[in-house]
Amino acid sequence: MVKIKNFIEKIKPYSDQIFLVVVIMLVGIMSFGLGRLSAKYQTAELNIKSTIVNTADLNKIVTDGSVKNIKTVKKEVVPLSVEGSDPDVEVTTLSTQKIVGNKDSKIYHYENCSGALKMKAENKIYFASILDAKSAGFRPAGNCQGLE
User: Fold this and answer.
1) Is the four-CA dihedral 82, 87, 139, 99 of positive or negative sign?
2) How far apart, in whole angstroms, are the C-alpha atoms of residue 17 and residue 23?
3) How far apart are the first and last CA of the chain?
4) Which residue in 39, 52, 113, 135 could disulfide with 109, CB within 3.0 to 4.6 Å?
5) Is 129 exposed, middle or buried (0-12, 13-18, 19+ CB in 10 A)?
6) d(CA 75, CA 73)
7) Contact yes or no for 81/100 (Cβ under 8 A)
8) What is the sign of the dihedral through the CA atoms of 82, 86, 88 and 93?
9) Buried b / exposed e along 68-107 (16+ C-beta atoms within 10 A)
10) What is residue 95's DSSP assignment?
11) Strands in the chain per DSSP E
């Protein structure tokens, strides 16, 4: 007990500085904790739902005629399945993505999908459309957005 009283008497002249150090440490710890807590709930995620490009809009962009080799995209006819619509009406969509299949796993991806980028070159098979890949017995990749 005597040692504690002696210690308190020795640090009394420095009590203002000790209080300031303790307050600064507590503010720093609380700031760190709040920063970690707020970072836990922030997600910066970009999801691209569609990769459909309308070539008519691209032709409007090129106005000076300097680009000569614009390749047109193969059109796929997809039946419209909107409730209450005419079932005989068909919608034409443009697909600019190549479909890449894996020989070993029998899974197809878009060419820019992470699974296709990691695929070995000797395992890649290219398809003209999703329908071609399905008819060859391939199934869609679960991690590629927009595959049917």
Assistant:
1) negative
2) 10
3) 78
4) 113
5) middle
6) 6
7) no
8) negative
9) eeeeeeeeeeeeeeeeeeeeeeeeeeebebebbbbeeeeb
10) -
11) 75-79, 90-94, 99-102, 107-110, 124-127, 139-140
Q: What single-letter DSSP state applies at residue 102? A: E
Instruction: Quote the tokens at residue 22.
Output: 């303790």
- The pLDDT profile of the chain, 148 residues, written as one tens digit per residue, is 888 888 888 888 888 999 999 999 999 999 999 988 887 776 656 566 655 555 555 555 545 555 555 555 454 444 444 445 555 544 444 456 788 999 999 999 888 888 888 888 898 988 888 888 889 999 988 888 777 6
Domains of the chain, by residue range, sit at 2-40, 72-140
Q: What stretches of 21-134 adopt beta strand conformation (E)?
A: 75-79, 90-94, 99-102, 107-110, 124-127
Class of domain 72-140: alpha beta
